[in-house]
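Notebook B, p. 112. Complex prediction, attempt 2.
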Amino acid sequence: MKTAENEAVQQYLTAVERETSGLPADRRQELLADLAEHIEVTLAERQEQDADAVRSVLRELGDPRTIAATALGETGVGRPGPAGPTGPTAPRQPSARTRIPAWITVVLLAIATPVGLLAADFGGGVIASLLRIAGVVMLWVTLRWTTAQKTWGTVLSFACILIPNLAVLGADPVGDGALAAVHTVQVVFPLAISVWLWMTHRRD
Amino acid sequence: MEPAEASNPATQAGKAASQLRKGVLEYCVLALLRDGPRYAVELLRGLEAVELMATSQGTVYPLLSRLRRDELVATNWQESTSGPPRRYYELTPTGRAALDAFAAIWPDFRDAVDLFLGTPRSDPSHPPMKHLKEQREDR
């Protein structure tokens, strides 16, 4: 596809994006990805891929405003009043999970290392790991974060524990200073992740 | 001239068709998947083959998104010999159950509407076309 045609597609997608500002971010991205895929597939299945072909593909796809209105109707966002989110088209299945509060995840991830350190004489490492795994499970079970946020939260939660541990793996015995540094990182970073998750979680 | 436009039979027919389509479109999509997985552009072609179900293509994607979310369909990407990979849709057991439930009540529903309209299909003394014609002549 030439640049001019590419630009027409971009303009179309930008128009859809502009008209769907009322959609939740993930729904909006999903719709844009679906439409982009449609354009790509339809064009690939045509004989010509010139400006005329692009124009007709976009015309058949329809007015961005109509698509936006349908999308808003599907999510219930467009409907005013209490009927909106509980309307017949509201997603049925996740209702129980949406009620799980965000603070459970945030607190579990924040306290894992401190509790582990306090209980160092009673298998603290195991306790910390269990709390952290519980936190990550809750992060994925609750519907308060996007998949991208959940992925980052999970990766960073484990990375900020593992990386300091690996850094001092060779040293035996580990110096007091190094150990303090490792523990500081393992307390402060999860705390920072918890703060970030708390700031970004989806509110009702 | 708005009142004239509102009573225009073509406009009214379009409105009625659009309302009805809204209600049944998702079941038509599920029905198109009954015999196996299809990708979105194929589904659209299937709908467009029947004029009454033809709709602005883009409006089907929010519907597909909801079917995915409600787990009535599952999707997976497959490479294609021509062009980009396609996302194939397939019925989940829940989706098949929803389709079967719809198929079970649809005949009763259709008969009920016919009953109210007074156009029983099995009654030759009252052919639907004649009925409509009489009404038009009354005006």
